């Protein structure tokens, strides 16, 4: 989605693009002036860094701060980052009863873990998932930071908004929209539609809040940032922090000329590869596609890939590789194909916010005979295509372009619902169009 | 569409007959349902034209508006409809039971509840519009409406909203319920045609189902040919009898079809959880009756921020429970989950009923069961499991390898040192376990509507009924 006139540089004749540092400073300056501040962050643009910095900035004022994230992993991650950068801050980590904190968290100085606010002492920062915060009452915080606010459903915000007076909302507008298992048409068009994201509802009720945009992706390489920016952020583009050639991927051992090897070589050379299987309608857990994905991952390890970047040279170990798919049964099938357990295999939903050197993606539309709203959702492909620092290999059956042509998005138009950009259909075409130049046919 | 349903649809085409996709009935069928078939005037959003209704297949009651463009006649019709419908709808509060509640006063729950059966989903949508156009009206002041109309509006609104509630059977649509139990060889769009779907289930696909002269549309929209050639001249003639008889030709075929659909569904045995869901319906109906008795205002036009979130939470909970219950009630539905690897069935090959975990005081009984299965299991170790064979039992997957699944029972095997008799399956028993469990955490509390936070627009203005409500433009 776009916020007209929002970020600087949004319109023609605007002032020159601000540097990331300028944006961060403007955000921090805006905090005391407004009830809420929104920061849009494209993939890998330093969202977590901003959250950590804003947390330290707010904690320095001496007022207590609450931080809201969406999953336990995100919370644990933020705790670790805050402690790493600002060891003097005391952090309280609220959790549900069944939560087992990772050992690395218990070893951190200044961190307490508890299920009740009273158990935490009086830390500078209290951090928990939105679901956990919903059970807290009887106290308010002067400040809150809501992380991944675009992935948060607005009904969750409704449950916790009474806990804070002012808040910084940070998130990536291009990723997956929140969803529900029930039909929410009866609320569509309402400004407080519970199925909309927290940020959409917030901005519809408070249109004067400032919206900032982080302009540089530090994660995506120069080969990927323009593609992702054009396809998924058509009106709020961003650039890569590194130039062409700054990121390298080398395969140490020679290939055997198989399609999988050729696809990896193409990805190492250009940052993208499309391994195209013959056109066929398949079940979701397409055995050949699953096998191709597993083989690619195995070959990538065997060929001893080495990633070179501004952070130096390092081998692409299993932990630096992710495999992404649209559905859980596809994920289960890929896991069963015998990948090393260190390789992350997950759905787009759960890969949100993660970063790897190389990703291997099973295209959401591969082998399908229809393109539903689920598969066309631009956020799904955006997440899958923007997790990598070096290269992304997509596995797909041929014929997706034709499938898209046969299924133009035909969702009913609802009154009062802001038009969403980008259109999933168009974004899919844009990515396919780019991948066509990096195609290896099986 | 799931794999099994796709297969059933292919089979339906091959055999020329709809295929069952359920072994039990997943909806409640009242002993005395009321069939309600509304018709509207073409080109108008909510101008009622006629309705056929009744609880006896042999005695349909037909109510018609002789000139739907005349608002007075419309509301006179609504008054008649109220007279026909309300005695049935409100007649179930006579026999009640007292239900004790935790943290709340006991309440009276009706032993049975009304059930309005419409032919299709469009019938539900039109019922909602009828409710919307009548519930804010007043019997006094400017533009008064006949007695009973505002109350009718509230009840119609209630039924239509309840129809959107997962698992509710207060207002089922015949095509929906048939579609949940049989897969035809036609598209989902074609399944919305009651005549066509019923033909697939009974005699096999029939082109006549598409012929409006043989099977007029099941409403609420009428056949344009009928509108132009029969209805328009009848209305011009001004003869109420002629109009009514013309409409009867459009409604009677559908009337027969709906009762036929009810008959087909009645032949199925109800699933084990159907009574429980109907109990929720009865409780909901009793709550609505109580609210009306206390003089509650008509349902709001739109849900406020808090009301919307609360309704969403209730509906999601009901949807999740409904899916689990359907799978537990029906092996054919569970088979879908076995295909996706979320469930498995097989024979018990080994048990360790006295297996324990922990030491000393924290020593817990955790019987182990090993199942041999041909299903592909895609459940991660440590996941919670449930089983249709022992509903109260909880288990956890320990390992799944080479067709052998080991699980430990964590709940519902008794408190002693040895499991209660029958709690642990015997070697040789056929069992089914699934990661689908209805062990949900309740949703966290929402703020009171008057404490709606600034992020959601702040507290709403409280609703006060005024004469302005009746002045709303209805066209």
Description:
Chain B: Residues 465-475 have a biased composition (Acidic residues). Chain B: Residues 438-475 are annotated as: Disordered. The complex is a heterodimer of chains A (442) and B (475). Chain A has 2 domains: 20-217, P-loop containing nucleotide triphosphate hydrolases (Rossmann fold, 3-Layer(aba) Sandwich), CATH 3.40.50; 225-441, Rossmann fold, CATH 3.40.50. Chain A has an 8-stranded parallel sheet. Chain A is built from 16 helices and 19 strands. Chain A is α/β, with parallel strands linked by helices. Chain B has 13 helices and 16 strands. The radius of gyration of chain B is 26 Å and the shape is globular. In chain B, strand 2 (34-40) and strand 3 (48-54) form a beta hairpin. In chain B, helix 2 (71-90) packs across helix 4 (149-163) and helix 8 (224-237) packs antiparallel against helix 9. The longest helix of chain B has 27 residues, at 240-266. The chains are: A alpha/beta (442), B alpha+beta (475). At the A-B interface, helix 6, helix 7 and helix 11 of A face helix 11 of B.
Identify low-pLDDT runs of chain A.
Answer: 1-13
Distance from first to last alpha carbon of chain A: 37 Å
Class inferred from helices and paired strands of chain A: alpha/beta
The number of distinct β-strands of chain A equals: 19
- Could you please say which CATH topology of the largest domain in chain A applies here? Rossmann fold
Rounded to the nearest angstrom, the distance between the terminal CA atoms of chain B is 39 Å
Number of strands of chain B: 16
Major β-sheet annotation of chain B: 6 strands, antiparallel
Number of helices of chain A: 16
Q: What is the total number of structural domains of chain A? A: 2
Overall morphology of chain B: globular
What is the total domain count of chain B? 2
Helix % of chain A is: 25-40%
CATH architecture label of the largest domain in chain A: 3-Layer(aba) Sandwich
Defining key terms:
heterodimer; A: 442 residues; alpha/beta; Rossmann fold; 2 domains; 6-stranded parallel β-sheet; 16 helices; B: 475 residues; alpha+beta; Elongation Factor Tu (Ef-tu), domain 3; 4-stranded mixed β-sheet; 13 helices; 16 strands; 18% strand; nucleotide-binding (chain A); AAA family ATPase (chain A); Coronavir_polyprotein_1ab (chain A); helicase (chain A)
């Amino acid at each position: 989605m776009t916020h007209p006139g929002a970020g600087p540089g949004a319109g023609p004749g605007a002032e020159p693009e601000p540097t990331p540092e300028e944006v961060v400073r403007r955000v921090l300056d805006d905090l005391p002036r407004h009830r809420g501040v929104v920061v849009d962050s494209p993939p890998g643009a330093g969202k977590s860094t901003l959250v950590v910095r804003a947390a330290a900035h707010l904690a320095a004022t001496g007022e207590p701060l609450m931080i809201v994230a969406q999953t336990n992993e995100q919370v644990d991650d933020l705790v670790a980052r805050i402690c790493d950068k600002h060891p003097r801050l005391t952090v309280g980590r609220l959790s549900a009863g069944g939560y087992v904190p990772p050992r690395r968290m218990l070893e951190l100085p200044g961190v307490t873990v508890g299920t009740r606010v009273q158990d935490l002492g009086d830390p500078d920062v209290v951090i928990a998932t939105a679901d956990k915060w919903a059970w807290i009452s009887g106290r308010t915080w002067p400040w809150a930071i809501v992380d991944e606010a675009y992935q948060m459903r607005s009904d969750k915000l409704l449950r916790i908004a009474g806990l804070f007076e002012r808040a910084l909302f940070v998130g990536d507008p291009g990723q997956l929209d929140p969803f529900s298992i029930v039909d929410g048409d009866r609320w569509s068009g309402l400004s407080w539609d519970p199925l909309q994201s927290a940020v959409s509802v917030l901005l519809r009720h408070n249109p004067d809040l400032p919206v900032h945009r982080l302009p540089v992706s530090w994660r995506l390489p120069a080969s990927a940032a323009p593609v992702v920016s054009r396809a998924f952020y058509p009106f709020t583009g961003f650039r890569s922090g590194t130039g062409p050639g700054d990121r390298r991927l080398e395969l140490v051992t020679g290939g055997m000329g198989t399609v999988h090897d050729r696809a990896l070589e193409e990805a190492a050379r250009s940052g993208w590869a499309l391994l195209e299987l013959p056109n066929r309608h398949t079940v979701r857990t397409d055995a050949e596609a699953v096998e191709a994905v597993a083989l690619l991952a195995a070959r990538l390890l065997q060929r001893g890939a080495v990633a070179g970047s501004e952070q130096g040279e390092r081998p692409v170990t299993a932990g630096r590789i992710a495999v992404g798919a649209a559905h859980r049964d596809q994920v289960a099938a890929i896991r069963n194909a015998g990948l090393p357990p260190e390789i992350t295999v997950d759905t787009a939903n759960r890969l949100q916010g993660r970063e790897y050197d190389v990703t291997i993606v099973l295209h959401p539309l591969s082998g399908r005979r229809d393109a539903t709203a689920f598969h066309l959702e631009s956020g799904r492909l955006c997440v899958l295509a923007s997790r990598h620092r070096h290269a992304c290999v997509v596995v797909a059956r041929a014929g997706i372009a034709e499938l898209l042509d046969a299924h133009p998005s035909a969702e009913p138009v609802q009154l009062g619902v802001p038009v969403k950009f980008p259109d999933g259909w168009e974004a899919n075409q844009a990515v396919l169009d780019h991948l066509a130049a990096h195609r290896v046919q099986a | 569409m799931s794999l099994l349903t796709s297969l059933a649809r292919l089979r339906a085409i091959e055999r020329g007959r709809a295929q069952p996709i359920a072994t039990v009935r997943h909806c409640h069928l009242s002993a005395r349902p009321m069939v309600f078939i509304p018709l509207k005037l073409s080109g108008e959003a909510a101008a009622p034209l006629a309705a056929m209704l009744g609880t006896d297949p042999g005695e349909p009651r037909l109510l018609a508006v002789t000139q739907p463009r005349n608002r007075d006649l419309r509301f006179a019709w609504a008054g008649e409809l109220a007279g026909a419908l309300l005695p049935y709808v409100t007649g179930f509060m006579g026999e009640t039971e007292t239900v004790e509640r935790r943290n709340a006063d006991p309440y009276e729950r009706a032993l049975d509840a009304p059930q309005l059966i419409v032919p299709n989903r469009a019938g539900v949508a039109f019922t909602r519009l009828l409710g919307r156009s009548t519930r804010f009206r007043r019997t006094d002041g400017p533009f008064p409406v006949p007695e009973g109309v505002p109350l009718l509006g509230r009840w119609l609104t209630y039924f239509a909203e309840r129809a959107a509630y997962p698992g509710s059977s207060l207002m089922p649509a015949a095509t929906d319920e048939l579609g949940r139990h049989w897969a035809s060889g036609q598209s989902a769009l074609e399944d919305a045609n009651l005549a066509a779907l019923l033909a697939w289930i009974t005699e096999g696909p029939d082109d006549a189902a598409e012929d409006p002269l043989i099977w007029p549309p099941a409403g609420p929209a009428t056949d344009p040919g009928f509108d132009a050639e029969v209805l328009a001249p009848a209305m011009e003639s001004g003869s109420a009898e002629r109009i009514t008889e013309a409409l009867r030709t459009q409604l009677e075929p559908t009337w027969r079809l709906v009762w036929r659909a009810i008959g087909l569904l009645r032949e199925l045995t109800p699933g084990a959880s159907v009574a429980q869901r109907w109990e929720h319906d009865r409780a909901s109906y009793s709550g609505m009756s109580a609210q009306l008795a206390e003089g509650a205002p008509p349902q709001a036009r739109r849900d406020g921020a808090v009301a919307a979130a609360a309704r969403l939470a209730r509906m999601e909970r009901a949807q999740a429970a409904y899916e689990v219950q359907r799978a537990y009630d029906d092996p054919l539905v569970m088979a879908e989950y076995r295909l996706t690897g979320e469930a498995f069935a097989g024979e018990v090959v080994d048990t360790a009923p006295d297996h324990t975990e922990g030491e000393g005081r924290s020593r817990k009984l955790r019987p182990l069961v090993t199942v041999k299965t041909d299903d592909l299991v895609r459940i991660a170790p440590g996941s919670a499991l449930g089983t249709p064979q022992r509903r109260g039992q909880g288990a956890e997957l320990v390992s799944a390898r080479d067709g052998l699944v080991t699980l430990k029972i964590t709940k519902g095997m008794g408190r002693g040192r040895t499991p209660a008799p029958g709690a642990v399956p015997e070697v040789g028993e056929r069992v089914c376990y699934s990661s689908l469990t209805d062990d949900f955490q309740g949703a966290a509390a929402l703020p009171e509507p008057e404490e709606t936070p600034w992020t959601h627009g702040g507290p709403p203005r409280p609703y006060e009924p005024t004469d302005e409500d009746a002045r709303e433009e209805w066209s």
